[in-house]
Specification:
By secondary structure, this protein is mainly α. Helices cover about 50% and strands about 5% of the residues. β1 and β2 form a beta hairpin.
Length: about 650
């Protein structure tokens, strides 16, 4: 162990750690009983570069909403009447934006969209919105840095208020109504302004592919047989999978998979902001066809929209009527999205990683080898988590408005999802094995699994190489009192409360330490990327992934489910527009890149060749994934070049 030789004097180290203990105090009431930081330390505020990325995407969304609500929806260019609206209406509104008690006027909209030297001039009206926003962005960033992330809520609330005039409302009469919400082609420039999923989401192959390469590719589990809750018949199965196959054979051969949302049974339906919403607890059966073709894809077989069988919960298959089957598939997407946002995303990435940040600052000196390795993977996480608990998942916040159940239920679901995610069982290989999806011979096409394992292995090799510089034996790990204090606090009831963390109350072996740090870094980088960035591409189009249902599943008992029944299940247009704005923003900020640590971050010269090796391994992973994408529907969320170092959005 060589840490002692690189640390500063004991008194200086102890002083700095005492300061950190005052800055990083715990709070268990923000999302009871999850460990969070009580008050965000100043050092955790985001960087100017991060704010600039955020500003650019806010601008895109602002322009899109403005053109949708006030412009010509048939023309995706910016029209003169939109410019006139900016000048005549928004100019009046911006004067009323205040920040708390300091009475600072923030002319947000003009700073964001206009250049002051062009304001109210014929030159501006002729040229349209300027292309160079650098000066404007700098002004806005300075305001964000001065007032913190809380100002974003003020800005977005004001933007919503100003822009709501002319916004579409009520239930759609066709899917084209949702496409009209994408009015500014720069949102998705490669596909003409509309996410490509808008054209394919209703296909059964795409529905099944979502389970293995979508926004939440974490739910299906291998089963050998169905229980009494979900009595799919042999006839129903063979109508989909062929007469030469059977439920028994598929179960015995490991080709049968279930998505079970029992955790949501009994959840309370939400009503905020004004519509009655519905949550469900469906069961969805999938199967892999017989054979040895390495490109055999998962197929949807049957869906039941509740946990108990019977007349109230009929079983639907691809052979059911068109809109009944589409309605049932949409119910699954609604519930999958609710589980995704509360559990897979917030609970099992943001809060999971967040629990390790205070112990790192409170127990490890800055130049401790583990502190140096971890801190870049924590950048921005506490700021995002603090903003989320304060605004996003607060009563009448974004989650309350968009998800199906009440905000209290959503928060309880987050806690249940986190507490049931034991640390030692969360290792990626173990997670895949627990769900029975680890064998590519049985489930050949599973892009999330295959790409995630590549990234996991690369991180594991890097962590192993790095930590082996400082710990050559298990006894070195056991003797590092700083490390043991870090582990003790992470698992303590008055500390991080990380469930199932450690070995016998501490960390006893180098192997365990390597696996544990691999999991933390993987979760902060790759796992978050896998569940966060599909929000923009897939979830921004509400019919593909509605965040709430607006009809009860009992509608499916009708003799004939109509197209309008299906459309009424989907979010009303104002809700769809809010969903677009929120998830697009969350899924569009790429800040930092996995493997690219700050310059001169590691002062130990022995680290450089190991880091070079890690970066080269990531380049090889990138090439392998791109090659895989030549022979499968493209899945790019785990390309190392698309994975940030930390959870920072």
């Amino acid at each position: 162990m060589t840490n002692s030789s690189t640390e500063t004097t004991s008194s200086s180290v102890n002083y700095n750690l005492e300061v950190a203990k005052q800055e990083y105090q715990y709070n268990y009431n923000h999302i009871p009983p999850v460990a969070m930081v009580d008050k965000l330390p100043d050092r955790e505020q985001p960087s100017k570069e991060w704010y600039l990325l955020l500003v650019k995407n806010i601008r895109l969304l602002f322009l899109n909403t403005l053109i949708t609500n006030r412009g010509n929806r048939g023309n995706r260019g910016v029209r003169d009447d939109v410019i006139k609206y900016i000048l005549e209406v928004i100019y009046k509104e911006i004067k009323s934006i205040k920040i708390e008690e300091d009475s600072k006027t923030i002319p947000f909209f003009l700073q964001l969209l206009l250049s002051q030297n062009l304001l109210i001039t014929q030159q501006f009206l002729n040229q349209g919105i300027p292309n160079d926003f650098r000066e404007i962005d700098d002004l806005f960033v300075s305001l964000l840095k001065e007032n913190g992330l809380s100002i974003l809520n003020v800005i977005l609330e004001k933007a919503t208020e100003v822009l709501k005039e002319g916004s579409p409302e009520g239930h759609a009469t066709s899917l084209e109504d949702y496409q009209k919400l994408f009015s500014y082609k720069e949102l998705f420039p490669e596909t003409g302004g509309i996410p490509s999923v808008a054209y394919t989401f209703a296909e059964d192959e795409v529905f099944a592919y979502m389970r293995v390469a979508g926004y939440n590719p974490l739910m299906i589990e291998q089963i050998s047989t169905l229980d009494e809750r979900f009595p799919v018949t042999e006839t129903q199965y063979q109508e989909i999978m062929g007469n030469d196959d059977s439920l028994a054979a598929a179960g015995k051969e490991g080709r049968l998979y279930l998505a079970d949302y029992k955790i949501l049974e009994g959840a309370l339906n939400g009503t905020y902001p004004k519509y009655q919403k519905y949550i469900y607890a469906p069961l969805a059966l999938f199967a892999v066809p017989k054979g040895s073709d390495p490109n055999r894809k998962l197929r949807p077989v049957a869906i039941q929209c509740g946990q108990t069988s019977g007349a109230d919960n009929p079983i639907f298959t691809p052979n059911s009527s068109e809109y009944a089957w589409l309605f049932a598939k949409t119910v699954v997407e609604i519930v999958d999205a609710n589980f995704h946002e509360a559990v897979s995303h917030l609970g099992r990435t943001h809060l999971f990683v967040g629990a390790f940040i205070p112990p790192t600052h409170r127990q490890l000196p800055k130049n401790h080898c583990l502190s140096l390795l971890l801190r870049p993977h924590f950048e921005g996480t506490l700021a995002i988590n603090d903003a989320a608990q304060e605004k996003l998942i607060a009563p009448k916040g974004g989650v309350d408005g968009l998800l199906s159940s009440t905000i209290d239920n959503a928060r309880v679901l987050t806690v249940l999802g986190l507490q049931s995610y034991g640390f030692n069982g969360a290792m990626l290989p173990e997670q895949l094995k627990q769900r029975g999806v680890d064998d590519p011979n049985l489930l050949p096409v599973y892009p999330y699994r295959d790409d995630a394992l590549l990234v996991w292995d690369a991180i594991h090799q890097w962590v192993s190489d790095y930590l082996s510089l400082y710990y050559s034996r298990d006894e070195d790990v056991q003797a590092d009192r700083r490390l043991q204090a870090w582990a003790t606090e992470a698992m303590a009831f008055d500390g991080g409360r990380v469930p199932d963390f450690g070995e016998d109350g501490g960390i006893r072996t180098l192997e365990y330490l390597i696996n544990a740090i691999t999991l933390i870094i993987f979760t902060a980088s790759a796992q978050h990327a896998a569940v966060n960035f599909p929000q923009k591409d897939i979830m921004s189009y509400a019919p593909a992934v509605p965040l709430a249902g607006y009809l009860p599943s009992s509608i499916l008992k009708k003799d004939e489910v109509s197209e309008q029944d299906y459309l009424d299940l989907l979010p009303p247009l104002e809700q769809a527009q809010t969903q677009l704005n929120l998830v697009y923003l969350l899924g569009s900020v790429y800040y930092t890149k996995l493997g690219e640590y700050p310059k001169n971050h590691f002062t130990d010269s022995k680290v450089k060749p190991l880091l070079d090796k890690f970066q080269e391994n990531l380049n090889q992973v990138e090439a392998t994934i791109e090659n895989r994408n030549l022979n499968r529907p493209v899945y790019r969320y785990l390309l190392p070049s698309k994975i940030p170092q930390s959870i920072n959005i």
